[in-house]
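Holo prediction. Input below; ligand is manganese (II) ion.
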Amino acid sequence: MSSSSSSSSSTGPPMSSVAVSPEVAAALARGGAVVALESTIICHGMPYPKNLQTAMEVEAVVRENGAVPATIAILDGVPHVGLSSEQLKSLAISGRQFQKTARRDIAHVVASGGNGATTVSATMFFAHKVGIPIFVTGGIGGVHRNGEQTMDISSDLTELGKTPVTVISAGVKSILDIPRTLEYLETQGVTVAAYKTNEFPAFFTEVSGCKVPCRVDSPEECAKIICANKNLHLGSGILIAVPIPKEYAASGNAIESAIQKALKEAEYNPYSQQSVVDKNIIGNAITPFMLDRVKVLTGGSSLEANIALVKNNALLGAKIAVALSDLQQ
Ligand code: PSU
Ligand code: MN
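Structure of the complex:
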């Protein structure tokens, strides 16, 4: 474990350190399997109480498959790795009161003693800081549609370029520009592998029309790639894209028409800095707005699919973490 980490105590660790839960610290110390989990998905991606139920179920899936879950969030200015059930509950109830925290927001949230829900970029940062190589989420951010005009490219992609953590996700949502997202990941030197398929999945659907450069068919194969990355000190991240389970895959058409409608509502005019329908959806508010509108416009069915795929990703993530731990013993 990194020397900058310390165990949580009643007074709390000094500013700029990270509180690692005793269970996570013990697992890391013995080289056991640990899976990092993000908190933006809990606070900004799903409504209460479904968010709490999902967070607990995801942690349970990780445990059932032999790994220790480490949900990451900033509580009263202190980055936490591994939350107690009380902390998880208060996070889920607080929801949007927790600031969406990407890499750029970390210093401010910590310095002001605030509460932060970490996105993929911030979660990767803290996972790596304490020595967790595996991180499971639903979907990562990417290059937004019209990104060539707005330059709205998620810091998740640059983080993947410079932080050696493996992220297991269901690909990226088609609210984003998937071909450009893959181009950007290539530029950043990120290993992109799809699980048991040659196609990069689009979150709600198994297909995106984009092929991946690398296919993996088992947790052991993933673990070998992670080891090679580590042994060569590549320093970059790995994205394992897992297609949504068939029984939950939504009709691509229904999702696409909801996305088109939501995109119109949020439409960003780079010159006026305002949405054309005056919703003023800009910057980091775009992703949560789009996720919420697509959920409403699909009558909530997208939420059930979302929950199912996160649990499916957690199952694979735990197996990869166990395979990696075995390989390194
Ligand atoms: N995509 C999803 N669900 C999510 C997110 C993305 O399908 O919850 C969240 C993740 O936390 C991700 C963040 O890291 O949104 C990306 O936000 P932005 O596009 O503002 O970088
Ligand atoms: Mn953005």
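Confidence is low (pLDDT under 50) at residues 1-15, 274-278. That is the main takeaway for now.
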